[in-house]
Design brief:
Number of strands of chain A: 11
Number of helices of chain B: 0
Radius of gyration of chain B: 14 Å
Strand content of chain A: over 45%
Number of helices of chain A: 0
Structural class of chain A: mainly beta
Distance between the termini of chain B: 41 Å
Largest sheet of chain A: 7 strands, mixed
Helix content of chain A: under 10%
Shape of chain A: globular
Number of strands of chain B: 12
Largest sheet of chain B: 6 strands, mixed
Largest interface: A-B, 29 and 25 residues
Radius of gyration of chain A: 13 Å
Oligomer: heterodimer
Shape of chain B: globular
Distance between the termini of chain A: 32 Å
């Protein structure tokens, strides 16, 4: 099983609909992140969280909200989806040690299409 | 402002040859980390290699090595003995030290095509 699991992996939704992307992790990490990927732009940070009481906006948080239901779960919501939110979304986790090597783990990605 | 620049939108290489993918970064922080990720057409992000700003030696992981030139703020990825399975998008990313969070800034990526 993957350490970081995203559901759904693929979703097509209509403009104006509410959609939730879920992320769960078995790494025991306290930091969790949501990124968005658009063609030619790499990944950009939407929201990040230290724990269930800590939620922070990233560089492109408008139109999104998040919920940290438990240490292992971090969900991303689009309250009213619009076509330019069509993208590949990644959840990631990291541990508290910022000085060592690969401490960041990505989920497999969720393809979201808004029509 | 912190920024990652990948100037090569696309590269191609002959199978078994070596290829260098360029990455330059901009930061005023003395402590930072640099990552390379591979993204095949299936979409997942695969970690390849990491270099810390205080690491004295260039990082190596199998066929991957990172040519870290701190004064020039470059962190180029070298893939030796290219294989057909290396065809993918490659992203350079920088970890920003920020209150213990591992936030990453990504470059726009380089698409590598390996030809037989």
């Amino acid at each position: 099983d993957a350490d970081v699991t995203q559901t759904p992996r693929n979703r097509i939704t209509k403009t104006g609909k509410r959609i939730m992307l879920e992320c769960s992790q078995t790494k025991g990490h306290d930091r969790m992140y949501w990124y968005r990927q658009d063609p030619g732009l790499g990944l950009r940070l939407i929201y990040y969280s230290f724990d269930v009481k800590d939620i922070n906006k990233g560089e492109i948080s408008d139109g999104y909200s998040v919920s940290r239901q438990a240490q292992a779960k971090f969900s991303l919501s689009l309250e009213s989806a619009i076509p330019n939110q069509t993208a590949l979304y990644f959840c990631a986790t990291s541990d508290s040690d910022a000085l060592t090597g690969n401490t960041i783990y990505f989920g497999e990605g969720s393809w979201l299409t808004v029509v | 402002a912190q920024k990652i620049t990948q100037t090569q939108p696309g590269m191609f290489v002959q199978e078994k040859e070596a290829v260098t993918l360029d990455c330059t970064y901009d930061t005023s922080d003395p402590s930072y980390g640099l990552f390379w990720y591979k993204q095949p057409s299936s979409g997942e992000m695969i970690f390849l290699i990491y270099q810390g700003s205080y690491d004295q030696q260039n990082a190596t992981e199998g066929r991957y090595s990172l040519n870290f030139q701190k004064a020039r703020k470059s962190a180029n990825l070298v893939i030796s003995a290219s294989q057909l399975g290396d065809s993918a998008m490659y992203f350079c990313a920088m970890r920003r030290p920020s209150g213990g969070y591992n936030k990453l800034i990504f470059g726009a990526g380089t698409r590598l095509a390996v030809h037989p």
